[in-house]
Amino acid sequence: MPLESKFSEVAENRLYSLAYNKSIREHKLMASRCKKCGYLSIPPKPVCPKCHGSEIDVVEMKGGGKIAAYTVVAVGAPLMVEEGYGREKHYCCGVVELEEGVKVCARILGVDVSKPEQIKVGTPVKMDFVETFHAADPTHEEGERTFLAFTVLEKP
């Protein structure tokens, strides 16, 4: 059975998700910008969620931002467990507000997850990417994958 048949709701936006995933593999973060109202969406969408306009530009984000929210995770999602994270090895993920004003969820790198109280909302970050190997799952073949991340900028 083709993937599109299994995941029909994903198949409707297949070109957008394929293009977004390709941009991540190329170490670029793309968003859609509505020509009517200027609203930015990550990942890109074919219709503006704010005004329902369908005239959309796809634009590249600069990559700078600040932590808007975060959590340190001890019981990870299956992909993170596969990478070795869990009760003994925590990781940080969060929401980053980009310079352009749009927010995106990603891993936060360069923080001491053993001291989450030292991680601060508003801390400047730069876009980064994590390259890792994963087993097959219902939507991906086995192999290398690239994930969006943000690294805390060094303090001056």
- Nearest-integer average pLDDT: 86
Overall number of strands: 8
Question: Termini separation (Å)?
Answer: 55 Å
Structural class: alpha+beta
Largest sheet entry: 5 strands, mixed, barrel
Can you walk through the features of this model?
There is one protein chain. It contains four helices and eight strands. With 156 residues, it is α+β, with helices and mostly antiparallel strands. It folds into two domains: 60 residues, no CATH class; 95 residues, OB fold (Dihydrolipoamide Acetyltransferase, E2P), CATH 2.40.50.840. The protein is globular, with a radius of gyration of 17 Å. The N terminus is likely disordered.
Topology:
Elements: H1 3-6, H2 8-11, H3 14-25, E1 30-34, E2 40-41, E3 56-60, E4 64-73, H4 78-82, E5 91-98, E6 103-109, E7 124-134, E8 143-152
Parallel strand pairs: 6-8
Antiparallel strand pairs: 1-2, 1-3, 4-5, 4-7, 5-6, 7-8
Summarize, please.
Helices cover about 15% and strands about 35% of the residues. The chain is built from four helices and eight strands.
Features:
5-stranded mixed β-barrel, alpha+beta, 2 domains, OB fold (Dihydrolipoamide Acetyltransferase, E2P), disordered N terminus, 156 residues, globular
